[in-house]
Amino acid sequence: MTAWMSELGAILTLQNLMLCFSGALLGTITGVLPGIGPAATLALLLPLTFTLDPAGALIMMAAIYYGAQYGSSTTAILLNLPGETSGIVTALDGHKLALAGRAGPAIAVAALASLFAGLTCAVFIAFAAGPIASLSLLISPAGLAGLIALGLFAAAVIAPGKPLPAVILILFGACLGLVGTDSGGGMPRFTLGITELRDGLGFMPIVMGLFGIAELIRSLETGDRPDRIAPVRWPWPTRADLRASWAPTIRGTTIGGLLGVIPGVSTVMSSLAARGAERAFATKDVPLGEGAMAGVAAPEAANNASAQSALVPLLTLGIPGNPVIAVLAGALMIQGIAPGPSFISQNPGLFGALIASLVVGNIILVVLNLPLAGIWAALLRVPFKKLVPLIIVFAVIGVHSVQNSLFDVWLMLGFGVFGWLLVRLNLEPTPIVLGFILGPAFEEYLRRTLLFSRGDMSVFLTDPVSLVCLLVIAIGSAALLWRGFKRLRTARP
Amino acid sequence: MKIARVIGVIRSQSTAAPLSIMLLGIAMFGLARTQPAWFDDRIGPGLFAQWLSASVVALSLIWFVSAWLEGAETSGSDNKTHPSAIPGLSLLAGVALFALSFPILGLVASCALTAMVVSWGAGDRGWIAATFAALSGAGVALALGLTLLPPGTDLWPTGL
Among A248-257, A282-291, A400-409, which stretch is predicted with the lowest mean pLDDT? Predict the structure, then answer.
């Protein structure tokens, strides 16, 4: 604990505090804007971190990440339109409060619940991630390959929509991850003879195309906002508000923190679970759905706890459980840092920087959210069509600046078209990014396993971790097939 | 009549997605087949690539068949109206314009052009809006170019 505190002190330089503040501010501003989710926010702001050292970049990226989560709740409360999907749950009661002239206290309760969840999860990550990572170092390459496969399977199954398309898109993303020179034999793969592809597809063009461009097009095509935005008055909640929200905050934090560790569980699922749990508890406040503070506190705590505890599988196993964490993982890789079992032992300073960012950033966000709630409301009055040209300019400059390459801009355009087509076909582009990140890692563990076993595939059945993962995948697939078969049978007379 | 119905199912949104991804998978499988799967007793660059692309093709086929069956059940109910394609196309055109004009016009002017085209597509039409968008785009590019970007970045047109 003392070592950790001294690490924390060493990291909290003025420069890092400024980075944390600006990351939280930028994240909140973009998170407030409906239609731009945290993944797109992180992707769009990624170029800002390129010139920083790894610790500074990690602090800023983490701050952008949860800043965007915070920002989305303001939009949900004021507009009944979430900046990010989990805001839908907050909006159910939060917007009712806003319509009753209590937008300020609702935003304040959301911020305080998020602060509690954020600090609790930062402590949880600080103490739990190290031991989990030490345990994961004992897992063989076959077991790690199995865990990656299980993580991807869980992400595909639990994600909203049909699981089969998500599995296919993950596999397709993994194919894209193989583009470039093969690390084993040095042979070019899927490069089509294009020299620029020998180093592989850039992460930035893919993520900017699939999230940035495609998301913006989706927002322009579907996003219209209500004319009336509820006014934000004095934001401090009353004693009754605080009394009604402290227990839901604790319950939401517990639910979100536990669910967030599971790969594939999104923040919206944690928020829904936390709100569902509140139904079981008697409250002196108004009932849920009619403007209850519990309906704001529980989902907001769960959403923030889930967003932060989702970092655990990334830091300990190298498995990004959701698209936002996948973007964060890609950003770390651009900095030359490989998240995985040895991340914490090899980079204790960076791990400390992340924890520091989580603690300080969450406090900064409350300071930003309470007095500035009125400014966020004013930001929502700026027409989205005025912001889109600037966001695109920022995106093209960002992608171009990574390698000073126009090829990357064309690549972004190609993935923008692809992402747009996916959106038009009612498909989510996010699984592609998960596959893109984890495909090469999976191949590496596969290669090592088969090298040690001299090409004997049965090692995946004799290794206990790999066997358990394969069994879970097999049972899950059988259950899904059975469900699909039953649905088809009931559809036919 | 039957042929028309089959074409209708293929053209429907639910089957177009698996069909197009299956075609991409087939193309990737063809490319992966050009790589060796094994070198003696260690895996080559083609093995995982072939597994992945073959899985994409096989699973897309399952998806296509189930979408086909569901499509046949609901025959012709897939008639959702799509929003206008203009915002999307103009946004993409803006990015393409940046890539084409940057080598000649430099960062500031190409960003101004891009912002103008995107602003038009976003529904902000008229000369005042276009000028405002162009000036804002140029301003952002100039600010980023002078502060964050490497000193060698071409901010102005070639020859200036």
Answer: A282-291
The answer to whether residues B114 and A393 touch, using CB atoms and an 8 Å cutoff, is yes
* Both structure tokens of A283: 């409250």
| Minimum CA–CA partner of A169 in chain B | B56
Question: Helices in A80-196 by DSSP H: which ranges?
Answer: 87-99, 103-136, 141-158, 163-177
Question: In DSSP terms, which residues pair with B43 in a beta bridge?
Answer: B38
Contacting residues of A for B24, CB less than 8 Å apart: 172
CA A242 from centre of chain = 29
Is B51 a residue whose pLDDT tops 80? yes
A412-416, A430-434, B129-133: range with lowest mean pLDDT: A430-434
Would you give the DSSP letter of residue A199?
Answer: G
Question: Does residue A370 surpass a pLDDT of 70?
Answer: yes
Q: What is the pTM of this model?
A: 0.77
Query: Could you count the other beta carbons within 10 Å of the beta carbon of residue A115?
Result: 21
| Cα dihedral across residues A287, A288, A290, A292: positive or negative | positive
For residue A333, which of A414, A441, A238 has the smallest C-alpha distance?
A441
Provide the 10 A C-beta neighbour count for residue B78.
Answer: 17
**Residue B2: what pLDDT?**
59
Chain B residue with minimal CA distance to A419?
B88
Residues of chain A contacting residue B45, judged by C-beta atoms under 8 Å apart: 182, 184-185, 187, 189
Binary contact (A167, B59; C-beta < 8 A): yes
Range list of β-strands (E), A160-252: 180-181, 188-189
Interface of A with B in 255-314 (CB under 8 A): none
- Residue with more model confidence, A78 or A113: A113
Read off the tokens for B21. Answer: 């991804």
Judged by DSSP in three states, A375 sits in helix
For A389, the closest of B44, B52, B136 (CB atoms) is: B136
- If you measure CA to CA, which chain A residue comes closest to B109? A393
Instruction: Using the predicted structure, report yes or no on whether residue A116 has a pLDDT greater than 90.
Output: yes
Q: What is the DSSP letter of A46?
A: G
For testing the chain B interface, which of A148, A183, A224, A388 should be mutated: the one with the most B CBs within 10 Å?
A388
Distance CA A88, CA A406 (A): 39
Q: Do B87 and A221 touch (CB under 8 A)?
A: yes
Q: What is the ipTM of this complex?
A: 0.87
Considering CB atoms only, which of B16, B52, B94 is closest to A392? B94
**A207-241 pLDDT, tens digit each:** 888 877 887 888 787 765 554 566 666 667 888 88
Please judge whether B42 and A450 are an interchain contact, meaning their C-beta atoms are less than 8 angstroms apart: yes
Q: Is B158 on the interface with A (CB under 8 A)?
A: no
What's the CA gap between A154 and B51, in Å, rounded? 20
Please choose, from the candidates A441, A192, A455, the residue with its C-alpha nearest in 3D space to the C-alpha of residue B44.
Answer: A455
The whole-number average pLDDT for the span A346-367 is 85
